[in-house]
Automatic annotation (TrEMBL):
Name the UniProt record assigns to this protein: GTPase Der
Gene3D superfamilies: 3.30.300.20, P-loop containing nucleotide triphosphate hydrolases
A Gene Ontology biological process term: ribosome biogenesis
The keyword Repeat is annotated on this UniProt entry: yes
Summary of the function given for this chain in its UniProt record: GTPase that plays an essential role in the late steps of ribosome biogenesis.
Natural source organism: Pseudothauera nasutitermitis
PROSITE patterns to which the protein is assigned, alphabetical: G_ENGA (PS51712)
Gene: der
SUPFAM superfamilies reported for this sequence: P-loop containing nucleoside triphosphate hydrolases (SSF52540)
Entry GO MF terms: GTP binding; ribosome binding
Record key words, sorted: GTP-binding, Nucleotide-binding, Repeat, Ribosome biogenesis
Pfam families named in the record: KH_dom-like, MMR_HSR1
Amino acid sequence: MNPTIVLVGRPNVGKSTLFNRLTKTRDALVADQPGLTRDRHYGIGRVGERKYLVVDTAGFDPVAKDGILHEMARQAEQAIAEADVLLFLVDGRSGLTPHDEQIAARLRRAGRPVHLVVNKAEGMERALVAADFHALGLGDPLPVSAAHGDGVRQLVDIVLAPFAQDEEAEAEADAGPRVAIVGRPNVGKSTLVNALLGEERVIAFDMPGTTRDAIAIPFERGGRPYTLIDTAGLRRRGKVFEAIEKFSVIKTLQAIEQCNVVVLVLDAAQDVSEQDAHIAGFVLDSGRALVVAVNKWDDVDDYRRERIKVDIGRKLNFLGFARFHYVSALKTQGIGALMKSVDAAYAAAMANLSTPRLTRALQVMLAKQAPPRHGIFRPKLRYAHQGGSNPPVVVIHGTALEHVPASYVRFLEHGFIEAFKLQGTPLRIQFRTAHNPFAEKG
Ligand SMILES: Nc1nc2c(ncn2[C@@H]2O[C@H](COP(=O)(O)OP(=O)(O)OP(=O)(O)O)[C@@H](O)[C@H]2O)c(=O)[nH]1
Ligand SMILES: Nc1nc2c(ncn2[C@@H]2O[C@H](COP(=O)(O)OP(=O)(O)OP(=O)(O)O)[C@@H](O)[C@H]2O)c(=O)[nH]1
């Protein structure tokens, strides 16, 4: 499980700036898609192989007008409750304020490790910066400059040190696809889980002790093994599973990161909401394979069916790589076909793409349409090999590749997807430029 780091602090101390710095490596990998609205409060960061989840509590709507406890948004409270570690940001330029002291008092009761981070410390003497804030009784203040990046890497190393890297996830290949069922509240996730698990055999399922940990439920369907990654803290009650907690973005993100294939559940009776779009955006960023289940199809008439299709086409057009299924979890209709698409998406996400076939596919695309010239530079794409799975990564070698426009990258992505018939997974392109100054011209 990726550790969850939650940023807390009064307005204007630099939480958003630090959030961007902690998550930027990942964000930069994913080209912005038309129609995609991102939830900027949640992001995945990475140091080397180590991934972590960052939550920025800035800008959440206050629930009540006054009092620091009420002022902390409900979502901020939920994030604190679900955090593995809290970063408490203060402003090294303005010094300690009463507001800081109130937040500190709240965080001391959180029962989580808290690191006191003094931001805007660029060009300031370390001892001087820290002196003021020792009084908070939250240990040694860690000076950083979120804007300039000073001290941020050291901060991440200190924060992540207690969290052992877990490598169990990918290893169990014969446990079948790891599937996460995600969606906003009330769309029918629990009902779908029960439709999947109900009559099927749940293999030696043990409930772990804590509710904060995601649960992996192994099961078999049509003779194939799967593992269901829980999002809602499912509890077994008699024969069925039910959600024990309210919706959690953090758990949703954790489940997406841990699975191979996401099943995104939408409610056919309602228009696509901002929350649906945000969850879809998380899936897109993660690079996971995806199948969309438009649920409660039994409950809507023909007019409504047309309308929801149009709405989905307009608001979620960036999910074009996924297959859509119109299902009823309640009446267990369309579930078999849905799981067929899960299998196909898994196979696509894990596909082996041989270097000769990739290079041939590349040459076919180049023959169809060469990348445009950029000033004196003409990008030359020479050969391709596979650089990863889930999502498949295609590494292209050549020269002047930094001048390939985003639209051409998308053309290549689609071309490889078609050449290898990869249904249900996104695909990513990485460029490796050989620095040969002579080859770049011409
Ligand atoms: N000098 C300096 N300024 C910084 C640094 N980090 C952030 N700032 C500035 O501080 C201001 C507030 O930064 P934000 O990241 O928006 O602060 P925030 O805590 O997210 O604010 P809210 O969204 O209001 O809670 C901006 O003008 C930033 O440019 C830093 O390391 N050094
Ligand atoms: N008509 C119809 N109702 C459904 C269907 N699937 C779920 N429902 C109903 O929708 C409501 C919500 O279903 P849940 O399975 O609890 O939804 P959920 O997404 O798990 O909700 P949270 O636990 O709040 O996240 C319940 O009343 C279900 O009976 C369906 O296919 N058709």
